From TrEMBL:
GN (gene name): psbV2
Residue ranges of domain Cytochrome c in the record: 50-141
Native source organism of the sequence: Anabaena azotica FACHB-119
Protein name: Photosystem II cytochrome PsbV2
UniProt keyword list: Electron transport, Heme, Iron, Metal-binding, Photosynthesis, Transport
Keyword Disulfide bond: no
SUPFAM superfamilies attached to this UniProt entry: Cytochrome c
Amino acid sequence: MEFIDYLNFQTTQDSEHSTQDFSLVIPLYITEPIALDVDEKGTKRLFSPQELSQGKKLFERNCINCHVGGATLPDPEVSLSLEKLQAASPRRDLIDHLVAFMRQPMTYDGTQETYWCRQLSPSSTSQQQAESLAAFVLTAAQKAPGWGTDSF
Ligand code: HEC
C-alpha cells in the first residue's frame, strides 16, 4: 500500500508592533513503515504510515502553535531539529526519551522542569498516542527538509 503525506503548516503570529504572517509547507513522503530507535540499548520499532499520520494530527492539535515547522517560536535556540534533539541531555532523539519529555518537559540541560512546553498527561494522551507523536517528531526531524531551522 502506498501512502503519501504532505505536511502543511500555517500559522499567524501577532505581536504588539507587527503582524507577521508566514506559511510553510514541508513535504514528508511516507510510503512504508519507518524503523526508529526506541532506547539506548539500540531497540528499534517499526511505525506504520498510519501511526505517523496520527502523530502528525496530534502535533497539529497540541504543538504547532509553538513548534511550527519544527521551530520553537518562544525559544528558537531549542528547536526540534535532529541536531538539537541529539545534543539535549538526556538525548531526545529516542522514542522513549521523547515520550518521557512530553510527560514531563525539562530544560535543555535536563536539570529542571520547564513550564514553557506543553505537558501531556496520560489521561489526555495515551501511551500509544504519545509514541505516535514522538515517532512523527523524529521522522520529521530525520527526513523533512528544513524541519527545525531557526531561520524565520
Ligand atoms: C506554549 C508553547 C509550546 C507548546 C504548545 C509546545 N511546546 Fe515544546 N517547547 C516549548 C519551549 C519554549 C521549549 C523549550 C523549553 C526549554 O528548554 O525550557 C520546548 C521544547 C520542546 C522540546 C525539546 C527540544 C529540544 O531540542 O530538546 C520538545 C521535544 C518539544 N518541545 C516537543 C513538544 C511537543 C511534542 C508538543 C506538543 C505535544 C509541544 N512541544 C508543545 C514550547 C512549547
